[in-house]
Design brief:
Layout: H1 12-20, H2 44-56, H3 61-68
Pfam family, one: G-patch
Biased composition (Gly residues): 92-102
GO biological process, one term: mRNA splicing, via spliceosome
């Protein structure tokens, strides 16, 4: 045991967090005991509207393809015009980690 004499455990991860700052809470991590602050997240309605605009806004790739195929805004999809008029809404996975976690 001469090799380990005088050596103590050094928590390098704690030193790194103290030096560079923590990176917040990750998925699946529990808040420390006594931490009553709620987790910060963007407003849901705002984020959903922004995501829809990014994925199907007037300048998006999907929007351009549909326009080139003869689709007009407000019309339903499909040959008989009886398809969807609005994009499908994603359902989040509330309260658990994984896909859709917030």
């Amino acid at each position: 045991d001469l090799k380990h004499k005088g050596h103590e455990y050094r928590d390098r991860a704690a030193e790194r967090r103290a030096l560079h700052g923590g990176f917040g809470m990750g998925p699946g991590q529990k808040r420390p005991i006594g931490d009553a602050s709620p987790p910060s997240s963007p407003p849901v309605g705002e984020a959903a509207a922004e995501a829809l605009e990014m994925s199907f806004g007037a300048g998006s790739y999907a929007h351009k393809i549909l326009k080139n195929m003869g689709w007009k805004e407000g019309e339903a999809l499909g040959k008989t015009q009886q398809g969807l008029r609005e994009p499908l809404q994603g359902v989040g996975n509330k309260g658990t980690a994984g896909l859709g976690w917030d």
